[in-house]
Write a structure and sequence with these properties.
Layout: H1 3-17, E1 30-33, E2 39-43, E3 47-52, E4 58-63, E5 66-71, E6 79-85, E7 88-96, E8 104-107, E9 113-115, E10 121-123, H2 137-152, E11 161-164, E12 167-176, E13 180-189, E14 195-206, E15 220-223, E16 228-229, E17 234-235, E18 239-248, E19 257-264, E20 271-276, H3 277-281, E21 284-285
Parallel strand pairs: 1-7, 2-8, 12-21
Antiparallel strand pairs: 2-5, 3-6, 4-5, 6-7, 9-10, 11-12, 12-13, 13-18, 14-15, 14-17, 14-19, 16-18, 19-20
Signal peptide: 1-22
Organism: Rufibacter quisquiliarum
Region (Disordered): 215-235
């Protein structure tokens, strides 16, 4: 599961492990987990996504701004973990320990780090995001300029859509340049209750063909952090709205697709829209 993305992360972790000191843990840090007790991770914002490399080996639960983790069995193998809290990401590694010294990891200070009072400093890491504040102003200007062009374009796609809970999510426009894919979504709210957009998740899914009895063969998922767009947009009841985003450019195979998940703030109405690879690979240049 998620072999492509997490295989690379494991490689980075193996390089980092050789340089760890007794007082300071390397950027991709270990979270000690056992099968007899629960490990708690608390973040400075609501947790909306937990992605575990070997998900079958660990029990994971989200409660507001906390993540609870427990190993399913003794001596389970280490695995990377990616957590999204608010609009931020944290990445580390789950490692089995029979009796963890620390079972509460507090990241609420705004920077993913903690101190247990003994001088031990713990740091996590965040995946590269083109929307981050340290990115060049010139690149941000290009992204926003292209998104503005997309907002002004006429709708070109009608066939890629999903209907759920009297809500319609469809792909209205799509463009590529040498660095990014630009997407414009149409949301039709047929209910009387506003749909307040929390955020959108993008995942590249490969090897999605199903085997006998519906089992998927070596399905791999890779999260794609959005590089442009707006958060906390609101689609009022009985109205239509549009959402625009930019994601890093990629090329998918015929067995792959882009899975777009639209999540509601303070609500449970989730929309999942699969976009076939051919739609993205054949998109016009902006």
């Amino acid at each position: 599961m998620k072999n492509t993305f997490f295989g690379f992360v494991i490689f980075l972790l193996s390089l980092a492990a050789g340089s760890a000191s007794a007082q300071k843990v390397t950027p991709l840090s270990d979270i000690a987990v056992s099968d007899s007790s629960t490990t708690y991770m608390v973040f400075n914002g609501p947790v909306s996504l937990v992605d575990v490399g070997m998900a079958g080996n660990y029990l994971v639960k989200i409660e507001a701004n906390a993540v609870f983790v427990r190993a399913r069995k003794k001596n389970t193998l280490p695995t990377p973990i990616l957590i999204r809290y608010g609009s931020e990401y944290w990445m580390g590694r789950l490692v089995y320990a029979p009796s963890p010294v620390m079972q509460l990891y507090d990241f609420k200070d705004g920077t993913p780090s903690l101190n247990n009072g003994t001088g031990f400093t713990y740091s996590g890491s965040t995946p590269d995001n083109e929307l981050a504040m340290d990115k060049s102003a010139e690149k941000k200007e290009v992204i926003e300029s292209n998104l503005l062009k997309l907002r002004k374009a006429k709708e070109e796609n009608q066939s890629v859509a999903v209907v759920e809970n009297d809500l319609v999510l469809s792909l209205a426009n799509i463009r590529n340049d040498k660095d990014f894919t630009y997407l414009r979504f149409k949301v039709i709210n047929k209910t009387n209750i506003d749909y307040n957009v929390d955020f959108i998740d993008f995942q590249l899914v490969e090897n999605s063909k199903k085997k006998f009895l519906g089992r998927k063969k070596n399905e791999a998922r890779r999260p794609l952090a959005p590089s442009g767009g707006e958060s906390n947009q609101n689609i009022t009841g009985r109205s239509t709205g549009y959402l625009t985003y930019a994601i890093p450019l990629y090329a998918a195979t015929e067995n792959g697709y882009l899975e777009v998940t639209l999540r509601e703030l303070n609500g449970a109405r989730v929309l999942v829209l699969p976009i076939p690879s051919k739609v993205i690979n054949r998109a016009s240049t902006i």
